[in-house]
Amino acid sequence: MLRSSPFVNLLSSPASFLILKLKPVSGSHSAATLASDTQNTSNRTTFGRRRAPVSIDLGVQEPGAKKGSRRLTFTEAVMYSLKPKVVDFDTVWVQLRPAIIDILNLKPMSNVHWHHKFSDVYDICVSIPTPLSERLYGEVKACIMQHVKEKRQQINEVDPDRLIQEYNKMWEVFHEGAIFIHRLFGYLNKQFVKQKRCTDLDNFAQYAAFLQIPDVKEIGCLALEIWKEELVKGILPQLVQFLLVSIDSDRKGNFPQEANVVSSVINSFVKMEETDFDVVPETGTKPKARESITAFYVESIEKPLLLDTETYYSTLAQRMLSELSCSQYMEQVIVLLEQEELRAKKYLHESSVSKIISLCQRVMIKAHKDKLHSVCHALITNEENKDLRNMYRLLKPIQAGLSVMVKEFEEYVKKKGLEAVSGLTGENVPQQFVENVLKVYNKFNDMKTVVFMEDGEFSSGLDKALQGVVNSKEFGQTVPKASERLARYTDSLLKKSTKGLSESDLETKLGNAIVIFRYIEDKDIFQKFYSKMLANRLIASTSVSMDAEEVMINKLKQACGYEFTSKLSRMFTDIGLSQELSSTFDKHIAEIKSSRPGTKFVPTQALVLQAGSWPLNAPQLSTNTNQQTAQDVADFHLPYVLLPVIQEFETFYTGKHNGRKLTWLYNMSQGDVRLTYLDKQYVAQMYVYQMAAVLCFERRDAISVKDIGEEIGVSGDYLLKTLRTILDVSILTCDDQALTTDSIVRLNMSMTARRMKFRLQAPQVNKVVEKEQESVANTFQVTQDRKYYMECAIVRIMKTRKVLKHNALVTEIMDQTKGRFTPDVPFIKKSIEDLIEKMYIQRTDQNDEYQYLA
User: Listed GO cellular component terms (predicted)?
Assistant: First the structure.
């Protein structure tokens, strides 16, 4: 024992040493003061056999004291020896036992007396020839046992009406005293108890799970265990009954006068099983347990309380349902739950709060959720937000409690949305569609935020409902019109004709358009419409601003990724490069004019557009959608005034970019023609085909439609549509109401216009507004784009996975393609078969399994 003592290890030899410790002369102190004064003393080597303290008058007055006032007197600490010695246990124990009883009763004790008792404990533990730790432990246990039995006798004589108050007083004194006794016997706890409990486990660590830990506890734990076994269990039924009655009275509004006593007694059932103690806290605060085991508390208090709570609230719920409406019932349940939570926190251990609340929710909500669900439809239909919020608060903690509410909410939103977008008529149908959908979205999004507290289930329900609204198909239609309408709405916002919108207002409206865009399933169709309208704005320079166009593209990029907007970004790049190219070409023309005095170069600005990025087709090139138009303009003759500059530009461009092929889009090329034959010199902005037809009247005033067609190289229906656009602005006149190839067209010599500069409309080529969506959706180009995108997605997946089952592959394909369109299963299967034929993937020997071929 001597060698294992931490005190002895501080010295190089068992010699004595001197510590001078100056303290004011101490009178009587309470045990609490002694414990706080010696928190760290248990680790100091100042204990052993000693001489009587000597008072030393240092002749020092207190600062600020008057003359003649008392002087400060200090106690001289004397030399203590840590050397083990022979101890007469009976003699020492006779003096130590009364001190233990005094400490348990929190009687005053001098500081010196406390240190002497601590020294006695140390001397007994390290005594020679044999340490007496085990005997000391047994005597302390018997002493505490006797003390508790006396307390039990006292509590049994107490008036039953005062039982709880008297028990609480005894408990608080005993618990405080047990902590101080634990400190006093700190050396016994460390050297005897812990070694007794851990020696066997350390020697046989591999069998630790099968070894029984010796029934030896630290002194503090031992005292609490004796209190529980010898006193508490004898009066447990009376205590529990009184506590249950007190809590029940609190529920009924009869608040106990000594609520803190009820709380203290209940929590004493937890503190009885403390296994470790903190350093004694400051005066006026309660000691805390580092680790509390609540088994005794649960069996003694919590289980009976839960049974009593279940009975009380089950009966109360049945009565409220029979007397109150559903709305009043929900409000009352919320109040009861809040009160019960506060009550549980007030009286019970923290581990019981969640159990009490869960029990109340089960008996008052879950048991009657069918009744709540039965009124859910009416509440949502009538938009009773207050009741809906109460219902949400009640059903949220219940497993699957919100499923009915979410379903009703989703169906109601979809119903309102379909009512808002059906039967739209007029010229501004796209704007009506967008604004009506946004009204529904904003209304129910606010409802989701305020009533349902941004709950994820309701967010998902709102998204599903609006997705069904946006992608709904009108009667007789096979493809939703949302893509076209949204594209036309954004086109109207981004055109120069938009008036009265500031930059912030415009950005807000574009953000609203993106809200609807996220719900569109066929985003690739929207992309076709949007890119075509963007091309028209860029070519005709009718965009409200390039910044606004970039804002919209950035929003689309955030919603669908870079790949979705890569071509749109390339269109902006082409416009910028074309402007630089035009400036260079103008300088080139200025340089060559002197060498070609007889050649007239019309001022021109050419836009060079990358064919793969722009959704444009030259009418002279035959495609699936413009075969007839290609035949009509196949032999078009460019106006002679444009030939020199066109030929020079081609030479200039091919000289800079060898190997590139230019294809002129005459159907989108425009020019200004000045009408000099009238009193006022009007300027008409027209397309090249219209310009060629008007230039036929330079040498004559009347000519047949057939002759015009032969002269400009245009025939058929396209020729008639081109001339009709010129007749609409009164530059030409015709006597025939129905224009044919035999009609005679005359130059209008008396034409007038409200503006000096005006624009001719482009010839309409199979452009019916209501049917454009249908035609685009079924075009070969959209189908091909989807096919290529699908195949790329399959190859990416298989390259990563190497081997994959059919169902897993279909699921991943759906996830990757949902950002652009929603494919059906037959389309996916056909794409897989095509890739198998192209030897990108192959089937394995397993059923429905594919393997990637490198």
Answer: cullin-RING ubiquitin ligase complex
